[in-house]
Structures are given as C-alpha cells and as structure tokens.
Amino acid sequence: MVSVRIRGIYSTALTKIFLDRGFEIIQPSEIIRERFGFADEDIKEEVEPNLYVHDRMDRQGIIVRGDGIYYEEIIKVLRLILDDAIFRGSLQASLGIMHPQIQVRESSLLQMIRASNMIGERIDIEFPGLSKRRLDEIRNTVTPTVSGHHYYKACGGRISMMVDIAERMLREGCEREEVESLLRENVSRILPKTGWRISMEHVKIAGQTFNLGPAKIVRFSIEDGRMILLRRIFSKGVYDGLNVHKDEGDYAISEIRIGDLSFRTRYFSKDEEYKGTYININTPIELYPRKIRYVDLETDICVWPNGEVKRIDAEKLEDALSLGFISERLAEISRREIKNILNSISLEEERESIHYLSDESIWE
After folding, report:
1. Does residue 215 share a domain with residue 352?
2. pLDDT tens column, 264-280
3. Which of 50, 94, 149, 173 has the most Cβ atoms closer than 10 angstroms to its Cβ?
C-alpha cells in the first residue's frame, strides 16, 4: 500500500482520489480529518509516508517527493482521472526508463528537457483548466464546492478568501446559484478589463515559462470570455513558424476566449499589411488578475497571405505523449481541435481582424 502525506489547496480532492484507490493517507491535516472522518488511531503521526505531496509555489499544480519507486503509482492514478495534467520531472529525465520500448527522436522538445536539467527526486504535476474542473467535481463529493474552486484558489489573495466565504455560505444552506453568481460578480471586479495591460504566460510542456506581453486589452466580454489583445513589435527578426520578417512597428492582434484550447495571433505591418496568422494549440486558457495563462502543446497552425495553411511541429505533440508528459486523451483532444481549425480557416476572416485597430484610442 502506498502511503501519502498531502498539503495544499488540492488536498481534499487528492485525498478522495487516493483513498478511493487504496492509498493510505498519513498525517492528515485537521480539516482533512474532519472531512473524511479519520479516527485518532488512523492518524499515525510517527509513520514516515512513502510520498509527500504539496502545492507548487504558483499553485498551478503539485510537487511529489519521496521514494521514487512509488512515483509510477501516483502518475497512473492521476493520468486516468485528469485529462490535461502535465507530468514533469525524473520521469522524463530518465528518457524512457519507465517506457523502455519507446524510441524518441532528438526533437527540440527532448533538447529542452536536457537543457532544463530536470533530473531530481521529485515529480512536478501541473493542473491546467480541465484538471482543475475535474478536481472541483471530486472535491464537491466531499464538501460543498463552488464551480471554479481550484482556479480561484490558484489566483490567491482576495479571490482565494472570497471562495472561503462563498463555500461557508453553501455549507450554511444558501442557494448555490445565488452564491456562485455573487462570487463571479466580485471576482470580475478584480480581473483585467478593457484598456488594461496584461502579460501572456506561455508555459512550455517541459516547464519553461515565457512572457509574451505586455499586451493591451482592446476588447473583453466577461459574458462569453472573448478578448482581443494588442501588442506592438519593437524589434526586428523572424516570426516563429511563419518564417516571415518581423519589423519594428509591426503589431500583433491576438484573439482569445477564456477556456478555449487554441487562440490566434494575426500579424500586420505598420502600414496595415497582413503578414500571417499563428494559431497556438494549448490547454484551456485561464485568466488571472494580471495575466492570461496556458500550457503550449507545441504543435501549431500557420496561415500565410497567399492562402497557404499548414500544421507545424506535429511531431512535438507526439513526443510529449511518448515521453509521458501528457495523456493520450489530451493528445486526442488537441488533434480534434486542430482538425476543427483546419476545416474552418478563412483567409478573408484573418485579414479582416485589422478592423480591431480602427479606434485610435487603443494606442493610448
């Protein structure tokens, strides 16, 4: 039997998952003891657990440490339940020890793994949007839980405290619909609005994080989550994927919707000439008080002014699957998203995004 000590914002959901699959919970916190009815004789304060589980610093997932021979057990369990969880750490550093039949080509993804020096006795497990929602559902079977609980908790600060108040209201018998509506209203006052500048946190599968901002919010509808972001280009170079010249004075228009599995960035010259579109495939986009965040799934789609459309870096998604970063379900979800995009691209629509710049005030 695998024994686990758990702490952090995911404790209730993870305790439920592990108990249901025969794990032993060691040294549970006071609140976990109450929620799961642990008797005093079940606490075992002096017993050393096989695995320690705690939040990452950014609350976007968990760190698992302890006896490495048990890592595979925890990975198996979470991979079965969480569609878009990302698994990083000694699993990939071993380059196939857990999957000796896999022969992985020397892709840029593999190079990133080597460069990031991920060897170490720990696993980093990220919980993107789909995973957070599933964990909400599991937590709700144990204690009243608002929709978006783990997302709100990952926001931290005032939003995290608002969730505590909302869930206390649920426990006291308040109507769920009223409580969640009030919570959304209060959270929306803290989240970015039209005219604000935010960063775009672009997280790679291997764990590196890039800031694509700052971007100005040109339009944002809280009702449907649709957002238009504008970035000025201040340097020369080449646009990745498109292999089109990047010139000072260009601008990038990103069209996203919170929760979507992809978003588009259209590039224009300072003379409003269309240079191409880069369509990013990712985990569900999440909006935080100062940024949007997602995990990039490596494969993308490019559209050129002559009408050419091409999927690029398809092998990187497959490498991520082979190396154990992602589940087959997430790979399949991404493949479906790509297929839907390829069947719906309109060059005219890509060019027409220029109209977002018709209002001179956006440059202020």
Report:
1. yes
2. 999 999 988 999 999 99
3. 149
- For residue range 313-329, what is the model confidence (pLDDT) as tens digits? 999 999 999 999 999 99
User: Which domain, by its residues, includes 13?
Assistant: 3-127
Residue identified by tokens 């686990």 is 4
Strands 244-246 and 51-55: unpaired
**Do residue 243 and residue 349 come from a single domain?**
yes
pLDDT digits over 159-210, tens only?
A: 999 999 999 999 999 999 999 999 999 999 999 999 999 999 999 999 999 9
Domain shared by 228 and 340, yes or no? yes
Read off the amino acid at residue 61: G
Find residue 256's DSSP bridge partners.
227
Considering only CA atoms, which of 181, 193, 184, 104 is closest in space to residue 152? 184
Distance (Å) of CA 125 to CA 66, 153, 198, 262: 14, 17, 26, 22
Q: Based on the domain organization, do 63 and 153 belong to the same domain?
A: no
Secondary structure E strands in 206-350: 209-211, 215-220, 226-232, 237-239, 244-246, 251-257, 262-268, 274-282, 286-288, 291-303, 309-312
Contact 222, 184 (CB under 8 A): no
Residue found by looking up tokens 């170079």 in the block = 237
